[in-house]
Amino acid sequence: MVTDHSVEGRIVALLDLDYFYAQVEQVRNPAIKGRPVVIVMPSIRENSGAVATCNYEARAMKIKSGMPLGLAKKLANENTVFINADKPYYEEVSQKVFDLVDFYCEKVEQVSIDEAYFELTNPLGYEKAKEVCEKIKKSILVDLGLTCSIGIGPNKLVAKMACGVKKPDGLFIVKASDAEQFIAKHKIGDLFGVGPKGEEIFKAHGIHLVGEIKTHEKRELIEWFKDAKGEQFYDFAFAIDNRPVEPNREKQQISKMMTLRQDSSSFEEIKTSIDFLADLVFKEATRLKKSFKTASIVIITDRFETITKSKTKAQKIENFDDLCNMEYDLLREYLHDSFSKVRRVGVKVSNFGEETGLQKKLFEF
Ligand code: DGT
Ligand code: CA
After folding, report:
1. Per-chain residues with Cβ under 5 A from ion ligand 2
2. What is the pLDDT of residue 304?
3. Candidates 20, 86, 190: which one to mutate for ligand 1, based on the most atoms within 8 Å of Cβ?
4. Which of 7, 108, 123, 255 is 20 to 30 Å from 337 by CA-CA measure?
5. Residue 293: helix, strand or coil by DSSP?
6. Can you give the pLDDT at residue 355?
7. Do the Cβ atoms of 254 and 287 come closer than 8 Å?
8. Is 18's C-beta closer than 6 angstroms to any atom of ligand 1?
């Protein structure tokens, strides 16, 4: 039998930010931390509107998304803070979050303002995937002050359901070998794609848990749902989900990192790595036909702090030597300011312009 390892060994993650709008407001104004926070989508009618989301303190009082504001106010205590949603600001923060994910991962598919799937398939398997996710969680927390939950599994379905297990601030892994059992014990209403109507249909056929789907034939599900959903639900019950991760984010940066052979504060030693990384980054930017104005050095110190230093030019940085010289200046700056040795170093370019004509060959026109 021919085994397709790229499918068998797939590892997918889903990242979902915790109580997103409310958490962003808590970071913006730390004085409200610890109090119940309710984010309101106001309506043009006075004193009406609905709850967009709320933090866990407010959820403890049974306030939830979609609830009319009047009811939320009845359930709230005097300590509760109500804030009108500031969607443009949440979008800005969301962009920053997924830029960080892009830094660690090639294939990122954002599915909502606070959720993204990313592909973590790698030869070292789940341990490596877990390590990458821990780094992503830490980076989002340190750089933006936000917690998120991540689920890891052999496909999108399992990753999504795993993400819900340890929320908030969770990381939960379901390996391929455990996936079918893991899915089976979930309530049917919690299965991805099952809305209130779908739940009714399942319950009318005596199905309350996902695993109970398997007591029926595929053709029955197709009959009940009268569309492709029936077939998909049947596959889901066996934890089968072949939907690919479809990258949909315009890359905001290109970066490469490496660990030094030994921790160092020698300009010459670190410069060798910078030359190597700058070459990779420049080639990648050329391949993607991206011009850029900002060059950054990312340093992880021997004390595991992450320090980023950047320089931006008014004009696009057009040649490789200019990029290297900017990186050397940034490195000198770091070595001058810091007492910590460098453990890992990265070269990053960002602030993209329109497609560069620079590298285009005649035959491309
Ligand atoms: P979580 O993930 O359970 O910790 O909490 P959230 O608040 O992150 O919930 P999620 O992931 O379902 O939704 C992400 C954001 O989308 C949320 O912070 C606010 C917005 N949102 C969710 N549900 C509704 C809704 O029913 N109405 C409106 N206007 N916005 C919503
Ligand atoms: Ca969320």
Report:
1. 16-17, 20, 114
2. 79
3. 20
4. 255
5. strand
6. 57
7. no
8. yes
Q: Which superfamily is assigned to 253-352 in CATH?
A: DNA polymerase, Y-family, little finger domain (3.30.1490.100)
The CATH class that applies to domain 22-86 reads: alpha beta
The verdict on the CB of residue 210 being under 6 Å from ligand 1 is no
pLDDT of residue 84: 96
Q: Which ligand is nearest to the CA of 21?
A: 1
pLDDT at res. 227: 79
Using 70 as the pLDDT threshold, list the residues of the chain that sit under it.
1-8, 46-47, 354-365
Q: Taking the CB of residue 77, how many other CB atoms lie within 10 A of it?
A: 10
Both tokens of 328, joined, read: 């050397």
- Measured from the CA of 21, which atom of ligand 1 is nearest? 18
What was the pLDDT predicted at 250? 77
Q: Determine contact, residues 63/54, Cβ cutoff 8 Å.
A: yes
Task: Please write down the long-range contacts of 195-203, taking CB distance under 8 Å and 24 or more positions apart.
Answer: 198/225, 198/229, 198/233, 201/225
CATH domain 185-237 topology: DNA polymerase; domain 1 (1.10.150)
Token pair for 316: 């696009």
Is 115 among the catalytic positions? yes
What are the residue ranges spanned by the domains of the chain? 22-86, 185-237, 253-352
DSSP state of 68: B
Q: Give 98-153 pLDDT, tens digit per residue.
A: 988 988 888 999 999 999 999 999 888 999 999 999 999 999 999 899 999 999 99
- Joined together, the tokens standing for residue 55 give 């933090």
